């Protein structure tokens, strides 16, 4: 089973190389840079993982397992950070669009402004931000799924690299949520976040 899993990983290397070639042609600069670098790091992660597999099956004994494991975790971490940066960029674009739509709707209604208390003024920005965030994610379920998946996947390398130690249960829960998000994307291809 382990050997079969590693052969599937080689297929993932090919997929990551193809995704890199696709992301190079993205029209928007930020997704192009983030996705290209993320996919390059993903390829490097799979190469490190393959080297670890070669050592584990006894084909090469002189490989420093701990060093290669840390390199793999580091490349996976960079891949996820860059993917999250792309998600946040896409989310900011969606929120800007939602804010413009809201401003147009308020102008067309031409409502008279009403008085706010000091407490309202202090919390208004947070309420507006959360409302825009909710509306943006509601309009873009693929963006929500991709962001949740990348965030949940990030827990494991953060723990492995010692950046932040998590309870194994939290890492397991993150892995479960990430797997469910991945299954949804496979089952419903329209839920995959597209490269623009």
From TrEMBL:
BP terms from Gene Ontology: peroxisome fission
Domain of life: Eukaryota
Pfam families (alphabetical): PEX11
Annotated Gene Ontology cellular component terms: peroxisomal membrane
Transmembrane parts of this sequence: 169-188
Keywords annotated in UniProt: Membrane, Peroxisome, Peroxisome biogenesis, Transmembrane, Transmembrane helix
Protein name: Peroxisomal membrane protein 11A
């Amino acid at each position: 089973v382990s050997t079969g899993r590693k052969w599937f990983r080689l297929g993932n290397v090919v997929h990551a190389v193809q995704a890199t070639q696709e992301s190079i042609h993205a029209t928007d600069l930020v997704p192009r840079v983030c996705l290209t670098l993320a996919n390059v790091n993903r390829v490097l992660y799979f190469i490190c993982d393959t080297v670890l597999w070669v050592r584990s099956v006894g084909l090469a004994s002189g490989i420093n397992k701990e060093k290669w494991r840390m390199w793999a975790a580091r490349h996976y971490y960079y891949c996820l950070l860059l993917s999250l940066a792309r998600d946040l960029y896409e989310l900011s674009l969606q929120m800007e669009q939602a804010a413009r739509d809201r401003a147009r709707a308020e102008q067309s209604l031409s409502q008279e402004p009403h008085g706010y208390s000091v407490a309202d003024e202090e919390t208004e920005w947070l309420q507006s931000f959360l409302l825009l965030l909710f509306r943006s994610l509601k309009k873009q379920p693929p963006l929500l799924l991709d962001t949740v998946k990348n965030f949940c996947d990030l827990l494991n390398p953060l723990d492995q690299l010692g950046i932040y130690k998590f309870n194994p249960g939290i890492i397991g829960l993150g892995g479960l949520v990430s797997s469910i998000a991945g299954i949804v994307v496979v089952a419903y291809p329209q839920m995959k976040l597209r490269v623009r």
